[in-house]
Write a sequence for this structure.
């Protein structure tokens, strides 16, 4: 994945004097600073007979001159950097994160534009290609810097990325910007013109004024970009009190491998995970004896105060009430929330329904939906049904959402789904005075089990950008720390809740 395209494509790219996409990112960042890459498995195994590594685009957060920035970099070694449907989705997700967290956005442009065979899934709809430029305009209007570096082709609609940026850079004899390339110009007007004459650095820097800075090569362009960022005059203003005393967890991070296994039916105490993530393994648990299938409490992560909401079993009415109460506390104090998901859902059955599980579960879902503090979610086990909603799944706008490799995500487990569909078919047969044979039951169950097994995989999820990446469990502390730091570039607004049904 990290290599991008095949060897031939990479050699062709570097023979032109170009750096590979991840080399460009590394050159742009502050030396020895981390890069939080997002969704590296995007588009994996999604397009028949086509390998589109990382969806032909690298996105992530890194420090440039001390400033956290979102970087969106086309990989021209993968399908000429063209935009597949999932490339668009990944680009838009990066912009969404940048907008939510007010991160300056750097576009390293080197793309052949839309992938034409997929045009109907790329071009016309609200979250298709045009939304990229809409987001760029809106973010600029909100004071979020937009900087483009043209390091290769920038054709047709893609020309608006640098044209709409606050500032831009172009590399001589390498970067080109035009609405229509030489072949289309020839066909439409009869004019014969080279790419460099039509939209190269010399013309745009000296004549059209489309570009602002003239670079001699990739490294020069990236140094100019660093200079631009150094002049942004931005200061991070966190709304929370950060402790200068940061203690590492008292327990080894790789203990997690022995605590959480691949068998999700085997229970574990989520407090053991928390102890290996938070500062000094210190956790002030809230309502420890009440609603014990949900663990809530306060801790610090790299000095930042956090509230943790973690599953320790199925959610009962008491658990949901406790979760709602705790989320309201964190919102009132403007403390970011971290959700550790491992949930089969809310409790079902006669007793649960009579105790009001629907309305109590709704309270927690309402609290999660309305919470305006930064929300970060890690799926450390199962994520099923409405439990996904109550624990801040993708639909509830966490700033970041990650999955562990052992995680599973679907509307319900495969066994439960196959049981439901088998029962429905059996009841239909009974109404016709017929019965299901064991062979017929197997023919119903097996395809459902196989489908849920495949589609519940974290790799299936990550390929489709249902999350922001699969992380090694031992990286959880580091990844959450980088994500939380990025999130705190934005001010934390007051939270207003809707009606809680009593």
């Amino acid at each position: 994945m990290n290599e991008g395209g095949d060897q031939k494509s990479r050699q062709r790219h570097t023979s032109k004097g170009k750096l590979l996409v991840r080399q460009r990112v590394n050159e742009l960042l502050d030396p020895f600073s981390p890069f939080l890459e997002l969704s590296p498995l995007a588009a994996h195994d999604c397009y028949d007979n086509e390998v589109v590594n990382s969806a032909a685009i690298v996105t992530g957060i890194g420090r440039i001159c001390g400033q956290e920035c979102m970087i969106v970099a086309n990989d021209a070694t993968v399908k000429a950097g063209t935009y597949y449907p999932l490339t668009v989705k990944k680009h838009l997700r990066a912009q969404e994160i940048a907008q939510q967290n007010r991160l300056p956005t750097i576009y390293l442009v080197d793309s052949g534009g839309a992938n034409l065979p997929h045009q109907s899934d790329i071009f016309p709809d609200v979250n298709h290609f045009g939304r990229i430029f809409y987001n760029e305009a809106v973010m600029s209007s909100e004071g979020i810097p937009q900087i483009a570096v043209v390091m290769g082709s920038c054709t047709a609609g893609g020309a608006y990325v640098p044209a709409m940026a606050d500032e831009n850079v172009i590399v001589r004899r390498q970067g080109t910007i035009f609405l229509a390339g030489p072949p289309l110009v020839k066909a439409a007007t009869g004019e014969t013109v080279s790419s460099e004459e039509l939209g190269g650095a010399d013309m745009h820097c000296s004549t059209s004024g489309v570009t602002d800075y003239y670079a001699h090569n990739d490294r020069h362009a990236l140094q100019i970009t660093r200079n631009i960022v150094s002049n942004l005059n931005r200061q991070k203003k966190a709304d929370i009190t950060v402790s200068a005393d940061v203690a590492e967890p008292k327990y080894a991070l790789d203990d997690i491998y022995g605590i959480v296994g691949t068998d999700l039916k085997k229970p574990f105490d989520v407090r053991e995970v928390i102890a290996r993530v938070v500062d000094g393994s210190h956790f002030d648990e809230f309502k420890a004896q009440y609603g014990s299938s949900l663990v809530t409490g306060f801790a610090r992560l790299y000095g930042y105060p956090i509230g943790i909401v973690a599953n320790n079993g199925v959610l009962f009415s008491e658990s949901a009430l406790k979760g709602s109460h705790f989320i309201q506390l964190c919102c009132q104090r403007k403390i970011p929330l971290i959700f550790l998901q491992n949930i089969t859902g809310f409790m079902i059955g006669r007793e649960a329904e009579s105790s009001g599980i629907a309305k109590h579960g709704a309270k927690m879902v309402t609290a999660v939906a309305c919470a305006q503090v930064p929300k970060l979610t890690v799926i450390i086990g199962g994520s099923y049904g409405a439990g996904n909603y109550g624990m801040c799944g993708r639909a509830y706008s966490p700033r970041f959402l990650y999955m562990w490799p052992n995680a599973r995500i679907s509307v319900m487990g495969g066994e439960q789904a196959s049981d439901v569909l088998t029962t429905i078919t059996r009841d239909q047969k009974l109404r016709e005075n017929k019965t299901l044979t064991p062979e017929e039951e197997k023919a119903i169950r097996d395809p459902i089990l196989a489908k849920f097994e495949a589609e519940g995989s974290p790799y299936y999820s990550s390929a489709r950008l249902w999350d922001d990446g699969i992380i090694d469990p031992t990286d959880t502390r580091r990844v959450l720390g980088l994500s939380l730091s990025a999130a705190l570039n934005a001010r934390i607004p007051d939270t207003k809740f809707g009606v809680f049904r009593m």
